[in-house]
Write a structure and sequence with these properties.
The structure is a homodimer. Chain A folds into 2 domains: about 55 residues; about 120 residues, no CATH class. The model of chain A has no long low-confidence stretch (mean pLDDT about 95). A two-stranded antiparallel ribbon of chain A has the order 1-2. The first copy, chain A, is mainly α and about 210 residues long. Chain A is built from 10 helices and 2 strands. The radius of gyration of chain A is 21 Å and the shape is elongated. In chain A, helix 6 crosses helix 7. Chains A and B meet through helix 3, helix 5, helix 7, helix 9 and helix 10 of A and helix 3, helix 5, helix 7, helix 9 and helix 10 of B. Chain B binds a DNA duplex (30 and 30 nucleotides) through helix 2 and strand 1.
Chain lengths: ~210, ~210
DNA sequence: GTTTATGGATACTGATACTATCCATCACAG
DNA sequence: CTGTGATGGATAGTATCAGTATCCATAAAC
C-alpha cells in the first residue's frame, strides 16, 4: 500500500500523513526505492489511533507522540504508560482561584484521598487540577456543588475497577497497554459526552418551561 | 477600582484584561472621564469566572463569550443556557472511525437512549461525539470497553440528578443559571481529574510490578 | 513515453490567545 | 502647577499549534 491508498482508506489527507511521518507519530513505510515506500495494516491501525486521539480526544500531537513512543517500547511499565496518558489529558494550568480557596480545597481533597484510601503521588498531574478545580468552585461561590465530590468519587472508583476488568481480558502486554491508553483517553471523551446527554435529557424534563 | 487594582486582585495581567474587554467577555468599567474607568466586585467575579472557564476548563474564548452573553440576558431559557455550555464543550469533530463501526455505534447509542428513556434531540452536540467515540472504540478493536457503556450511563444519570438537586438550592434565576453553567463545565474538569486520580491509585495497586 | 504519484525537504497558512506599543489624557505628589 | 506614572482605546506584533502547499527528482502506470 502506498501513501495515496493509505490516505484513501483512512480518509486522512496525504499532506497530513506526511506531517505525522515528519513528527514521528507514524513509523516510516518500508522503502523499496528512494521515493517509494509501502505501508501496511499496522500503519492503518496506527493512523486511526492517532486520529482518534487528536480529533476525538483533542490530545496535542506532541503528547500523542509521547504516548505512542511508550506504546512501542516494551520496557515502559504499565503504570508509567498510564502516567503518560494522564499527562496528555492534564495540561499544566495556571492558578485561577484565590489563595484561601486553594487552601481549603487542598484540605478537602487530601481528606477525600485519605478517606478512600487512594494511593496517589503528590506529583500526580491530576491532583493539582483537582485541587484547583475545587478551589475554583469555592471561589465562584458554588460550595454546594463541592458537596457532590464524594458521589463523584464513588462513581469514578467503580469506573476504574470496571475498566481494569474489561482491559485485563487482553492476553498480550502490547494489547493490554494499548487498551489502557485508549480506555483512559477515549474513555474520557465517552464519559463526557454521555454526561452531557444525560444532562440534556434531565434539563429537557426539568426546565422545558423556564 | 481601576484596571491596575483589578489586575492585582485577580492576578490577571492588565493587557489580558484589556483583551477580554475588547472581546466583550468583560463589561466595560464605568467611565468617569475618557480615560478613567472604575471596576467593581462584579468585574472581579466575572473575571475569575472567565479565567476558570478558559484556563481550567480550556473553553475557547469565543465560546466563553457566548456563554456569558446568555448568562447576562435574562430571556435565554435555562435549557438553552445548558445547550450553549454543551456546545462549548463539544467542538465539531471530524470523523475518525470506519463507516461500519459508525453504523453499529449509532444503533448501540440509539438503543441505550431508548432503553434509558432519555429525551435527546437528534442534533444534540454530544450525540455525534458519543456515537463517534463508540465507533472509535470499535474501530480500534476495543469492543470490550464498549460493554461498560451501561455502567457509565448509570453513573452519569445519577450525576445529573444530584447536580439538579445541588443547583436548585439557588434562589434567583441568575444564580441558578450561573450554577448550571459552572456545574456543567467545571464539573467536567472535576470528574475528569477525579477519574484520573482513581485510575492512578488503582493502577498503582494493580500494576506496580509490570 | 508521457502523465500521474511519491518521498523528502522547506515554506507557508489560519486560528487562537494573548502581548506590546502608542498616544492622548488623567490623577496625584511635590 | 508641573512632572511622573497609570489609564483607556486603538493597532500591531508574537508564539504556538496543526496542518497545507510547493518543489523537485524519481518511479509507476497506462
Amino acid at each position: 500500500m502506498r501513501i495515496g491508498e493509505l490516505s484513501k482508506v483512512t480518509e486522512v489527507p496525504v499532506p497530513t500523513i506526511k506531517y505525522y511521518l515528519r513528527e514521528g507519530l507514524l513509523p516510516a513505510g518500508e522503502l523499496s526505492s528512494p521515493n517509494q515506500a509501502s505501508y501496511g495494516e499496522p500503519h492503518v491501525r496506527r493512523l486511526r489511533l492517532i486520529r482518534a486521539l487528536v480529533e476525538l480526544a483533542q490530545v496535542p500531537v506532541a503528547q500523542v507522540k509521547d504516548i505512542l513512543e511508550s506504546l512501542d517500547s516494551d520496557d515502559v511499565p504499565l503504570h508509567e504508560q498510564i502516567g503518560r496518558a494522564h499527562r496528555a489529558l492534564t495540561p499544566t494550568r495556571k492558578q485561577t482561584a484565590t489563595e484561601e480557596a486553594r487552601i481549603a480545597a487542598t484540605t478537602q481533597v487530601t481528606d477525600l484521598i485519605t478517606r478512600r484510601g487512594w494511593t496517589v503521588e503528590p506529583e500526580a498531574p491530576a491532583l493539582a487540577t483537582l485541587i484547583e478545580t475545587v478551589a475554583a468552585f469555592r471561589t465562584l461561590s458554588q460550595d454546594n456543588l463541592v458537596t457532590l465530590l464524594d458521589a463523584y468519587a464513588d462513581a469514578v472508583d467503580s469506573f476504574a475497577a470496571l475498566e481494569i476488568e474489561a482491559v485485563t481480558a487482553n492476553p498480550t502486554r502490547d494489547q493490554l497497554a494499548e487498551s489502557v491508553v485508549i480506555g483512559t483517553i477515549l474513555g474520557e471523551t465517552l464519559i463526557s459526552s454521555l454526561r452531557l446527554l444525560a444532562q440534556e435529557s434531565t434539563s429537557a424534563k426539568h426546565w422545558k418551561n423556564r
